[in-house]
Amino acid sequence: MASGPTGRPATIYDVAAHAKLSIATVSRVLQGTGPVSAKARERVDQAARELNYVPLRAARSLAVQRHEAHGLVLPDLAGPFYGDLLMGYERWAGEHGQSVVITVTHGNPDPRRTVMDLAGRVDGIVVHGNALDVPTIQGLRKAGVPLVLIAHPPVTGCDSVRSESASSAEQLTTRLLDHGRENLQFVGDPASSHDVSERYAGFAKAHELRELQVPKPVRVPLTEEAGRSVAEKVLQAMNDRPDGLVCANDELALALIAFFAGHGIRVPEDIVVTGWDDVMAARYVSPGLTTVRQPMAELGRVAAERLHERVTGVRTRARNDVLATQLVLRDSCGTGISNRGMER
Amino acid sequence: MASGPTGRPATIYDVAAHAKLSIATVSRVLQGTGPVSAKARERVDQAARELNYVPLRAARSLAVQRHEAHGLVLPDLAGPFYGDLLMGYERWAGEHGQSVVITVTHGNPDPRRTVMDLAGRVDGIVVHGNALDVPTIQGLRKAGVPLVLIAHPPVTGCDSVRSESASSAEQLTTRLLDHGRENLQFVGDPASSHDVSERYAGFAKAHELRELQVPKPVRVPLTEEAGRSVAEKVLQAMNDRPDGLVCANDELALALIAFFAGHGIRVPEDIVVTGWDDVMAARYVSPGLTTVRQPMAELGRVAAERLHERVTGVRTRARNDVLATQLVLRDSCGTGISNRGMER
DNA sequence: ATCCAAACTGTAAGCGCTTCCACTCCGACC
DNA sequence: GGTCGGAGTGGAAGCGCTTACAGTTTGGAT
User: Fold this and answer.
1) A78, A89, A202, A210 - which has most CB atoms within 10 Å?
2) Exposed, middle or buried: residue A179 (CB in 10 Å: 0-12, 13-18, 19+)?
């Protein structure tokens, strides 16, 4: 504890007594508000140092009626994306004096309760994707909690930030069709998240524009495990074997490619494969994985900023940001681009 | 705001008034403490629901003199490890009713200040690796903040949790030497982190035990960029070219392998390469990357538990945990194990 | 009928901080 | 020499909650 490893932590009263000043002045010095003499400033600084004074944020929050903290609710933390997202978020928050309290709902026995508790200790909350069900989100709204949604279908009264999906997916699919592929399949369950449904929508639209029948999606979870099992099925489908697989994420695509490599199916000659996310492995496998890169850090940064605008009230109209994605062409899609896997 | 989107959020007074009871009873119902009649419980629950009441945690923290929150200080969030670490941490914390406030120091203009602020809003802090300099850590200690260090050299009075490094590195190095390698190099700067220095120590010890001269480390940062430049140097070293590279992490190793692949150097025939961390890409490259897996989630879990023990005071003696790592043999080390890159 | 304990409920005192307001200086200006 | 204004300071209220303590009921047992 402050003031030596014994006794309870020093409070502002201790500092005031030690500096022979009132707590009001101590507060003014420490917060840099109001007029204070140089002498007072110095005395307070020294007293605070000597007592190892750390202001109790809870008391300040109570007094100023603000937590200066954001809540961030994520479904999960596996994979590299969330790290980048969090990074971008934390960065912005840190630069603007906001703390970040995170909560992961996947595996949480009572997300609703957890999130309501969170709501009590922050000024606003950012929710990613399907981390929370809509009733819970509505509950937060009714409780008056400023809310920003990331990669989530729009909810009235909430801001949202997401990366563009449909059009990149369409562009990617069109490219494959342009290069003579005629039996593409979409791998991944559109119902698993809003993002994935948009990717499938783009995939579908590319087909519709050419008046092709839209293939039904292969509804599987977005895991390596699922990738392997899909690969097996593809292998066994003698007739009507697809000549291209548009995967909802890189994990699926990588697992597929690895499986094919071990079973004599050539990528991209026999079948083309694309992913989504541009994980590190995507540029190290051979052939390099064609994929779509999302600006995760930027997504986090923008979300933080939007929430702050809401919290401070500088903006009240809802706002929906859509960030551009980037198509990363490598060899797995067989469309003639080869960058030798040496790009960063 | 609660009680309709107008007006300020409902307080415990509003709930009490609405339920025609005292705030004391409301508190007792909501916290489940003390005796309350079924009637009162019901009235309070309903009132709280109707008013969308969310208890203000700052007020509770102030009253109970505890935040029920942990601080987590990380140097960075890039790479998959931190995600897993955070996951393990958050999981444990969530299950034990603790919130997690995270702070990233890399790129932070004033980590000390940020961390002191953090100290004011949590019950204890976990610091990873070199996220903080020792003076700052001492400062926290003097302020009486319970502290747990992850992957950090021991500091008196603090608990620590790390994964075993030296012995795995020694084992790995010995294995390479056993298979006839005679000119190994260690890639990565031992000064960059405690973990890396231990890995180098193990590498060195393996040499010493055979009375071989210990090669100086190739002091480079642990990045893909550095991996490429090291690869170039290796390529140019006509005489005295190393026949094996023990890398401090997978990023370095992967970049090296990719570069070699593009320049006609065969791995593992001409040169063997090993990494550290077992990132996803490690099992998708060809040859598969031999590496060492750390139990990141477990590291997080244990750290959370240790901190909680400290905060609640159930343990006061310092404790240092060392978690086992796992050597993952694949083809890049050329020691005859091949698992076809199909393991998960 | 009376009394007692147990069950429940309310009053009020904090928790540590910010900030409004009042007050005291003190130098500058008429 | 008196007045005014601003700089500096302190007193005290209040933020929303918990909880010790005291008070009120209730339902048996006597």
Assistant:
1) A89
2) middle
